[in-house]
Amino acid sequence: MALSLQGFLGQKEFWIFLFILGWVLLNWPLIELTSGYVILGTPAILIYIASIWLFFILALYLFDRGNFD
């Protein structure tokens, strides 16, 4: 039995998983790990938050786009 990406992305459990993953990655303990570090003159906390934010925007865009094909 082959799994299709279309069926996988349409499941409510997958969207709940993305929400929980985002909540965990943007939760205080993980954000606190980056405090005090500087990467190329930019605080690491800003790079961390921006990269997680961009990842989720791209993931949601691609997954939502796949649901309408």
Q: How would you describe what is shown here?
A:
The chain is mostly helical and 69 residues long. It has a domain at 34-69. The chain has helices at 5-9, 12-25, 28-32, 44-67; strands spanning 38-39, 42-43. Strands 1-2 form a two-stranded antiparallel ribbon. It is elongated and about 45 Å long.
**Low-pLDDT residue intervals, each spanning 5 or more residues:** none
Number of helices: 4
Q: Percent helix among the residues?
A: 55-70%
Total number of beta strands: 2
- Roughly how many Å apart are the termini? 22 Å
Describe the largest sheet. 2 strands, antiparallel
Biggest sheet strand order reads 1-2
Order of helical and strand elements: HHHEEH
Please state the structural category: mainly alpha
Instruction: Please tell me what the overall shape is.
Output: elongated
* Radius of gyration (Å): 16 Å
**What fraction strand?**
5-15%
Mean pLDDT: 80
Supply database-style keywords.
mainly alpha; two-stranded antiparallel sheet; 4 helices; 2 strands
Outline of this structure?
The protein is mostly helical and 69 residues long. 70% of the residues lie in helices and 6% in strands.
Question: What's the layout of helices and strands?
Answer:
Layout: H1 5-9, H2 12-25, H3 28-32, E1 38-39, E2 42-43, H4 44-67
Antiparallel strand pairs: 1-2
